Amino acid sequence: MSIxxxxxxxxxxxxxxxxxGSFHAQQCLDYGSNIVGGVTPGKxxxxxxxxxxxxxxxxxxxxxxxxxxxxFVPPPYAADxxxxxxxxxxxxxxxxxxxxxxxDMVRVxxxxxxxxxxxxxxxxxxxxxxGVITPGECKAGIMPGYIHRKGSVGVVSRSGTxxxxxxxxxxxxxxxxxxVVGIGGDPVQGMxxxxxxxLFQADKQTEAxxxxxxxxxxxxxxxxxxxxxxMTKPVxxxxxxxxxxxxxxxxxxxxxxEGNAGTHASKVEALKKxxxxxxxxxxxxxAAVAAKLKPAKKAKAARK
Amino acid sequence: xxxxxxxxxxxxxxxxxxxLPRCGVIKIGDCLEKLHIDGPGPWVVKAQVLAGGRGKAGGxxxxxxxxxxxxxxxxxLGMKIITHQxxxxxxxxxxxxxxxxxxxxxxxxxxxVMDRKAACPAIIASxxxxxxxxxxxHSHPEKIIKVAVDAEAGLLDFQARQLAFDLRIPQKxxxxxxxxxxxxxxxxxxxxxxxxxxxxxxxxxDGRLLAIDSKIVTDDNALFRHKDLxxxxxxxxxxxxxxxxxxxxxxxGLDGDIGCMVNGAGLAMATLDTVKMAGGDxxxxxxxxxxxxxxxxxxxxxxxxKDSKVKAVLVNIFGGIMKCDNIAAGVVEASKKVKIxxxxxxxxxxxxxEEGRKILAKSGLKLEQAGSLWEAAQKAVKAAR
Lengths: 304, 385
Prior knowledge:
The structure holds two protein chains of two kinds. In chain A, 38% of the residues lie in helices and 21% in strands. Chain A contains nine helices and 14 strands. Chain A has two domains: 11-125, NAD(P)-binding Rossmann-like Domain (Rossmann fold, 3-Layer(aba) Sandwich); 143-299, Rossmann fold (3-Layer(aba) Sandwich), CATH 3.40.50. Chain A has a seven-stranded mixed sheet, sandwiched between helices. In chain A, strands 9-8-11-10-12-13-14 form a seven-stranded mixed sheet, sandwiched between helices. By secondary structure, chain A is α/β, with parallel strands linked by helices. Helix content of chain B is 34%, strand content 26%. Chain B contains twelve helices and 19 strands. At the A-B interface, helix 1, helix 4 and helix 5 of A face helix 3, helix 8 and helix 12 of B.
């Protein structure tokens, strides 16, 4: 088991024929992801990377039975692509695009909530994220595939390269990942930490979770509440931005401390109180997880 | 992007938000006669800087005569201002606004913000304006009013009425206020803002409802549909920051002496934190971007080294799609073009890392390599001492 994606996932790529879409879709194909087609308005009926291209998401879903979308459409049009995928009945929508206006995402969220209320099953991941990967089964995103290894650690993060760093440490420890989810660095986004933690908690393959947060917003504080209330699996956290000056946007639109909200101290305190392990030094997160999981493995082996 | 008070007021005017008549703005080098000051007065002279608390720092002065207003404006230009919001740094006053003044009966706080959790805009207001809303939220949270707003419908009539009653707006100004609240939300939505704040909104002794100050922060991601805003200078960014932005590098200057070059915003933030933990201070935040090409790396070195405080440079790159051997070649290539005369510490990790490390080792460049971020930070701190 894993969450969101597995080897049965049928993926369509929005913006497949563009430079970013082509490059990353090829990488996903090389990894073994089951990309069944692409969507580029006006290029329907052609073929790209050996896959059929459709004019609309609805055409693509009808012809291929796709159940997941990967979006590489430029910022002015990306919000529309998310809604197009949702309307076509796609259940997992992963939006990589960076730079979508917040107000566009506010409108997207409202429509998605309405669709969900009408009984549709839709999960949006991102935008401004590296995507999702279930090692050995499906890579839907821009992360380097080879650093991952199939295993039992779930990873969820607001940042791209920071996720790679944590994943690499886990792999270097001889452990692996169940699924790695980049939820993205924007202030208004699809699934959040709590949504992801719930999936990991319910997933049999996942034995521990790494959660990488950063300053700004209250997603980490909300996650802490959930961890305390319902999480039985160990959670290991790192929160980036301890030394960031207040009021300045540190790259990610969402990583900004406004007033007294979203500070590093408040997040770390909440997570520690909830019983999560918070590492101060990023370089130690892999070892911290290994220290917890490896003895358990050895004990299990000894019993056998 | 943060707008200056007068830039925000120009937008308010387009949305019919009531304000006092403005007499003009002068910049350093402008003739004081550019200000159209007439009438009985008094006038207020306000330094246009992006920091709250300027009044206490001498950035807001009252003038009784036009001559006094001009004199004060002239003196204020070029003045240095330090407030509780400038983190010890002095801001230079480059522009001054002069407008009519009035006697204040009551101060109210009102703003439109983005409620990230609810994923919708919200109005935040308090019958007690004038003071820091953060302080009030902390000491008297019950005095803060919050109204969730639908981004498509705007502030509804009944919401505006409820807000007016909650804020105890006098009968005389009631309709004026509900109109203002709705327009405030309109500014927020149509300008793609992250914050639109009026602090204070006042009722004057003579019974007028007036926006005395303006603070607007816009969403950089939406600049493509606001060409007028895009053309405005970014008052918050330093010269180096502007230069970096123009070539697609995300750079923010800081106070320390260790220059940092990192790929990815999260990893860049974590690098600053790790440097601090190792006992040092970073000179900058720099995200070189996902596709760290030779060109980008060269430019990033140039940007980092423009800061004369830099005593060592730490390069921390996680090679994903961009492989480590290519990045190493980029660093070697860049160092041929840019004279790096401070210690250089490089930490590469990821795809083809062994090849990358070999390229660096064989390059003959004076640099130190590190296996982990922690090791790199410690080496950089030591080298900067």
